[in-house]
Automatic annotation (TrEMBL):
Listed name of the protein: 5-formyltetrahydrofolate cyclo-ligase
Organism: Flavobacterium psychroterrae
Keywords, comma-separated and alphabetical: ATP-binding, Ligase, Magnesium, Metal-binding, Nucleotide-binding
Homology family: Belongs to the 5-formyltetrahydrofolate cyclo-ligase family.
GO MF terms held by the record: 5-formyltetrahydrofolate cyclo-ligase activity
Keyword Metal-binding: yes
Catalytic reaction list: (6S)-5-formyl-5,6,7,8-tetrahydrofolate + ATP = (6R)-5,10-methenyltetrahydrofolate + ADP + phosphate
Cofactors required: Mg(2+)
NCBIfam families registered for this protein in UniProt: MTHFS_bact
EC primary class: ligase
Amino acid sequence: MPKNKKELRLHYKNLRKEISPDDIEEKSLAVANNLIQLPIWDKTYYHVFLPIEEQKEVNTEYVLHLLSGKDKEIVISKSDFETRGMLHFLLTDNTKIKKNEYNIPEPVNGLPVPSETIDVVFVPLLAFDNLGNRVGYGKGFYDKFLAECKLETIKIGLSFFEAENQIDDVFESDVKLDYCVTPEKVYRF
């Protein structure tokens, strides 16, 4: 099995291509249902990624329903490709969402939320291992963002697939997950 980030990225992108739209919905709902078990529901600010449909990411609509049902403050981001940074905004009824050139749905405007305010971050990923390391698309947006969050911010990966044993080429700057949730189970790191 592939063990370095480059190989894992390729492998999981290919696995994702095989997933049908029905499977995406079913597995995304199972992921959201598994989230209910986590001890995270006493927090206030929850950062959620909006899925890139073309990349067949976990559909976070179910997570959004869960959060709004619990009356939580929901934060979404806009990427700045020049700085590889992310700007965060409160999701409200007035938030306009538009896809950027990479098909990432982003808020057009809104109330800014500083990274250090965020209590829980749901993290997109391609693969992860039993130690809580993750492989994303390799641009470093989330590593940079997670490093700006407070130390006690809870980081939760969402994945359609189960953990790899270990990712070989992990860097010091890679921010580990606290949990990863799949349709089958909850991993605690």
